[in-house]
Specification:
Blueprint (H helix, E strand, L loop, with lengths): L2 H6 L4 H9 L6 H13 L4 H14 L3 H13 L14 E5 L8 H9 L5 E5 L9 H5 L11 H9 L4 E5 L6 H11 L7 H15 L3 E8 L8 H17 L3 E8 L7 E3 L1 H11 L5 H17 L7 H6 L2 H12 L13 E6 L4 E6 L1 H13 L13 E4 L6 E2 L4 E7 L5 H7 L4 E4 L4 H7 L4 E6 L2 E3 L1
Helix pairs in contact: 2-4, 3-5, 5-10, 6-13, 6-15, 10-11, 16-17
Bound molecules: uracil (URA).
């Protein structure tokens, strides 16, 4: 760094770090400078990591979170869908195990004439990525130009799921990678500003957030998930993006498929009017929220799933991105079935270890540059609340290399429980709804 460059900097990173470390609020100009100077490379990774840890421990006031979000938006391009002449609604999930909801949801909402721009990501660690799942479909292409995305949204299809361009909130990209390796991911101000900077920069009119809680989510307990949801709803509302959040249970995997190709198969079942009850229920709940924000609170989403309109949109959406919706999906070379060791009710299947096991089978990646194995994953034969008899299959592991089964099985040690049907927890598990609370700009409802 030259002497002139140093002389022109308006603030000192060390002062900003100290202010947050000591529990104070960072003034707006200093916070904006910190984000900008980090993006330019003037503030070092070590300084930013220290600041992120101070935020993790001390938190941020509402105004600071707004400024941080705004500064991250200002670090890159802002898209606009105003020229489409249609309402745009997006959905974002904070990430879970078996969470394939975007796949049936985007075409379902598009049936009602609303444009759905789903700029999605790839999986890292135990949570899957929407683009990885869709890339199981032969020919399907995640990278679209802005013109292609617009054409797809404007025309008959009306929905697009594609890779977010690197121009959106580059400050977040750099900061997120740093947080990932410095133990500073799970902080409400940092998660909220990270997610919302990208969503606001994307230019959607409205946004529905699926905020997960439970052992497979960033936020283990519902109170912290609620705080995250409220913070994001406020950020969206303050920026003119109509935003609603649902708090949803991520204690058990969503649906029966965890992986990539198998999650596409399950999504197609939902689009055909079937599929696991929890996937169908959450798809419809999120679709209703999205359509309500787009001015269609009475849209009959159930009929659109059951009469084939959502499936027609799906086929059109996949074809528009060069995929073949009729093509066979990859199947793994090896399988390993785990069976029940006793009669009873499955009271628990913890999402996190199932996510880790699927990752170890090859469905996820450890480093951003790794490839995923699309056929790898886990298929659940039973879900919590279901009755089993000894010897009955519980789930099947799939991999291309049977050497992967041992480490996946290690992750699953103690991850599920079978209890006598007469115990209290066996009765309790059947009663849990997937959507627990709804959070809007006006408040919270159960
Ligand atoms: N997803 C994001 O985009 N950012 C976070 O901080 C966490 C999840």
């Amino acid at each position: 760094m030259s002497a002139e460059q140093t002389a022109t900097e308006a603030f000192d990173a060390i002062d900003v770090i100290r202010a947050k470390r000591d529990g104070g609020a960072v003034p707006e100009p200093a916070l904006r400078w910190m984000v900008d100077a980090y993006t330019r490379g003037y503030v070092s990774d070590a300084q930013m990591a220290s600041f992120a840890m101070a935020v993790f421990q001390r938190g941020m006031q509402r105004d600071e979170i707004r400024v941080l979000t705004d500064a991250m938006i200002a670090s890159g391009e802002r898209m606009s869908f105003a020229a489409l002449g249609k309402r745009t609604v997006d959905k974002h999930s904070t990430g879970g195990v078996g969470d394939k909801i975007t796949l049936p949801l985007a075409p379902l909402v598009a049936v009602f004439g609303v444009a759905v721009p789903q700029l999605s990501g790839r999986g890292l660690g135990h949570t899957g990525g929407t683009l990885d799942k869709l890339e199981s479909i032969p020919g399907w292409r995640a990278a679209l130009s802005n013109d292609e995305m617009f054409a797809q949204l404007q025309g008959e299809v009306g929905a697009v799921i594609c890779a977010a361009g690197s121009g959106l909130a580059p400050a977040d990209k750099k900061l997120y990678a740093l947080r990932d390796v410095t133990g500073t991911v799970e902080a409400v101000p940092l998660i909220a500003s990270s997610i919302m900077s990208k969503k606001i920069a994307e230019g959607t009119d409205a946004l529905v957030l699926d905020v997960k809680f439970g052992n497979g989510a960033f936020m283990q307990d519902i109170d912290r998930a609620r705080e995250l949801a409220r913070t994001m709803v406020e950020l969206g509302t303050d920026s003119g993006v109509a935003t609603t959040a649902l708090l949803t249970d991520m204690n058990a995997p969503l649906g029966r498929a965890i992986g990539n190709a198998n999650e596409v198969r399950e999504s197609v079942e939902v689009l055909a009017g079937g599929g696991p009850g929890d996937v169908r229920e959450l798809t419809m709940a999120l679709a209703r929220e999205m359509l309500a924000l787009a001015g269609q609170p009475d849209a009959d989403v159930e009929a659109a799933l059951d009469d084939g309109r959502a499936m027609d949109r799906w086929n059109a959406m996949i074809r528009a991105q060069d995929g073949d919706p009729e093509a066979a999906l990859p199947i793994a070379r090896e399988t390993h079935v785990v069976t029940a060791d006793r009669d009873g009710v499955v009271t628990r299947m913890d999402a996190l270890p199932f996510g880790i096991a699927a990752w170890r089978l090859g469905a996820g990646r450890a480093r951003a540059e790794d490839a995923v194995i699309h056929a790898a994953g886990i298929d659940l034969a039973v879900k919590p609340g279901e009755t089993v008899t000894a010897g009955q299959p519980l789930f099947t592991l799939s991999a291309d290399d049977e050497g992967r089964f041992a480490r996946a099985l290690d992750a699953l040690e103690g991850a599920f429980a079978i209890e006598d049907a007469s115990t209290g927890s066996a009765a309790h598990v059947e009663a849990r709804p997937i959507v627990r609370e709804r959070i809007t700009a006006e408040g919270t409802a159960s």
